[in-house]
Write a structure and sequence with these properties.
Bound molecules: adenosine-5'-diphosphate, magnesium ion
Structural class: alpha/beta
Oligomer: single chain
Number of helices: 15
Shape: elongated
């Protein structure tokens, strides 16, 4: 792939795809990793006096100009983070507006486009739409690994019209994830949590082939517990996927991959009503309560598995970690990995926005060889099929 080390980008007009889909609560960015990771790219491009246009999606406005999903609020934040006097903003993504803005900018200046998903052409992967944008640029750089699993115009489209480069952050993500997978040390353990089994079915089937053991926690585990005829009370569950859960269990038996499900869970009446919190065995969950974290005995079981592993892959928090005390297991496991991984020469990889947040909350970053901010893209990459964005970079023939 062409990149900033083997392709000269000086005094060029650059279309830079980034992932600024940052988590925001009450107009405050709760997690800035996605901005942190592109700082280096911006610095290089600025030092080489390029005109830089940042293109990103934000939320799911579904092709509508919904101001709730405007990226404008990010300009002042990016000015601060990039330590630059000004980040320009461009509301309208059309040929005329881009030309006008481009002509008013100096080399080294930065402009942020409005949310590309305000245009339905983005998710429809409309070739003419991206062609009109590309007309105004010399080079496209994809530094958004976390969005590269999507067949969208601003991810795969430019490869037909511009020289396309892999950005430093995208390269770093691929290098680290691949080098983890390729080690194939044994025994290997996968810890999979999160809210929904539906988003991770393919991953589970794939992991059965790759791992010696899989721990299933989070709300995902509820679907398995339900399929195994436990009463799971009011817990979050995908009942229609009970059969899939059973077939995951069957396939794992056939492949000699051990699956560990919670044996106990921490329950409350609801996420908001925590007046009544108790640890229950999974076959004794009261009908009025919901499981919001794995329980104390399960935590011990997971720690035991960690000590017997040489490779650990973690995706998905083990409980509703945003709501204390249901962060207990995710914090304990993060810290346990931090304490033991280096000492016992265990390779560790974590991926997923919420997983990384949980690890950071535990201040346990140093326990992990690598943490990927990518969620869906990370999981799809682990499935081994590459990603549309990266394939587009590889296939790009324009110099
Ligand atoms: P990642 O972003 O790391 O891929 P996911 O998005 O798959 O992780 O899952 C994270 C979400 O799962 C969190 O919002 C967390 O609250 C939720 N979750 C985990 N366990 C439970 C549970 N038992 N009940 C409800 N939600 C849960
Ligand atoms: Mg998530």
């Amino acid at each position: 792939m062409k990149n900033l080390d083997n392709y000269n980008v000086e005094r060029k007009k650059i279309l830079l795809r980034v992932d600024l889909n940052v988590p925001v609560v009450d107009k405050i960015i709760t997690e800035k990793s996605r901005i942190e990771t592109i700082k280096k790219t911006i610095k290089i491009l600025q030092q080489q006096k390029n005109k830089i246009f940042l293109i990103s999606h934000f939320g799911r406005p579904k092709g509508n100009q919904n101001k709730k999903y405007s990226l404008k609020f990010l300009c002042s934040i990016l000015e601060f983070e990039f330590q630059v006097a000004k980040v320009e903003f461009l509301d309208n993504i059309d040929d005329f507006s881009i030309q006008k803005k481009m002509n008013n900018m100096q080399y080294g200046d930065i402009c942020l486009f409005e949310n590309i998903r305000f245009y339905h052409e983005e998710e429809n992967n409309d070739s003419n739409f991206i062609k009109e944008i590309c007309k105004n640029f010399d080079v496209f750089i994809n530094d958004a690994f976390s969005a590269s699993h999507r067949n969208h115009a601003s991810i795969v489209g430019p490869s037909k019209f511009l020289p396309c480069l892999a950005g430093p952050n995208l390269i770093e993500e691929i290098k680290n994830i691949d080098s983890f997978i390729n080690q194939s040390k044994k025994p290997s353990l996968a810890i999979i949590g999160g809210s929904k089994i539906s988003t991770k079915i393919k991953l589970l089937f794939n992991l059965i082939k790759l791992s010696d053991k899989i721990v299933i926690g989070g709300a995902m585990a509820n679907t398995f517990l339900f399929a195994l005829k436990n009463n799971i009370g009011q817990s979050l569950v995908e009942k229609d996927l009970a059969q899939v859960a059973l077939s995951v269990l069957q396939k794992s038996k056939d492949s000699n991959c051990e699956i560990i499900l919670p044996i106990d869970v921490m329950c409350a009446n609801s996420i908001r009503d925590i007046t009544n919190i108790s640890n229950y065995d999974v076959n004794l969950i009261p009908s009025s309560m919901m499981a919001l974290d794995v329980g104390m005995e399960t935590i011990k079981l997971i720690k035991h598995s960690i000590l017997r592993s040489k490779m650990i892959l973690w995706n998905g928090p083990l409980g509703a970690f945003e709501y204390s005390p249901f962060d207990e297991s995710s914090i304990q496991i993060s810290n346990f990995i931090k304490k033991n991984a280096k000492k016992l020469n265990i390779s560790t990889l974590a991926g997923g926005g919420d997983t990384v947040s949980a690890i950071k909350l535990s201040k346990a970053e140093e326990g992990f060889d690598y943490m990927s901010n990518a969620g869906g893209a990370f999981l799809e990459w682990l499935e081994g099929k590459g990603s549309p964005g990266v394939n587009a970079l590889k296939e790009n023939k324009i110099n």
